[in-house]
Write a structure and sequence with these properties.
The protein has 373 residues and is an alpha+beta fold. The chain contains nine helices and 19 strands. The structure holds pyridoxal-5'-phosphate.
Amino acid sequence: MTEAQPARTDTTPPSGWAVHRTPTPVAEADREARLAAPRFGETFTDHVARMTWTAEAGWGERRVEPYAPLALDPAALVLHYGQEVFEGLKAFRHPDGSVWTFRPRANAERLAASARRLALPELPAEDFLGSLRALVGVDEAWVPARVGASLYLRPVMVATEPTLLVRAARRVEYLVIASPAGDYFAGGVNPVSIWVAEDLHRAAPGGTGAVKTMGNYGASLASQVVAQRHGCDQVCFLDAATGRLVEELGGMNVVAVLADGSVVTPALDGTILPGVTRDALLTLLAEDGHPVAERPLPLAELREGLHTGEIAELFACGTGAVVAPVGRLAGEGFDLTVGDGGTGPVTAAVRRRLTDVQYGLAPDRHGWLERLV
Ligand SMILES: Cc1ncc(COP(=O)(O)O)c(C=O)c1O
């Protein structure tokens, strides 16, 4: 049991966020135990940052509140028509104790692009940054101080107006929750296995594949079940138009490393999420002398390349896992080992290059980090 403390209300300058602290924070020993072995997305901090938008007043009510279940009208538009967008990024503790996040303005821009596609109001980048600073400022003790661990931040914007009319909501809630994160996959950075879904698609031209909205993820789950049945960790989706081209995984982009050291990844054609991690890794790979091609990647080419060894490495990338080596690629009628099934040298090196910057162990030459605390 935690000892109840009086509720405190104060305002954190200069951002204008009101802070209502929980009277019952998780006890320090319990928090430290959770930080010692965090599993991705399974434990949450003491607070949530929130803002409210109405068609009449725009964005307002910037506040940090105790983490608690939401009171949502059963007719809330999001529950029926999925008007929702979200983001994902991480806060990293540096050796001097300061806390930083990685390219948050890219996430702010992507959230705005997602919001436009879902007819939701755009959140100004300064409010996005402000919400991260407000929450991490209050819940700073939840940021692990260990390389490999971080505090995952999940901003989400939902249509809360109670109505069964199919139209854009006139009331919207924005919130940020935070979850201490260790390894994304239970097996750590060991190679993952991928099942190629050839019948079900996650995105189609003109659809919502290039933005971060709940429907894309709901639509990916049936394939995920099939993948698990085949002993695979993740699903790789093919394009809906031809069914021939590799697009991405349910929650990560994919990159192939050829035996000649060049790198190929599917081009951002409007159905693939433009990953912030993907973009940073391509920059680092190009700087390290790997020619980078963003172009259509046929599954047949990938299968053939893995078979002949012309494709030496394959990895998935995203905020959660950072870089996940792929050891096995399987689908109806094929089951291929990537390289020797282990983590390839290019994959290992670029992962290290990026995480060294994120954890403050290497200079941030690109100005990718923003300080939160
Ligand atoms: C479908 C999908 N693709 C790719 C990514 C990787 O994006 P990022 O590197 O910005 O996390 C994510 C994760 O956000 C995702 O959900």
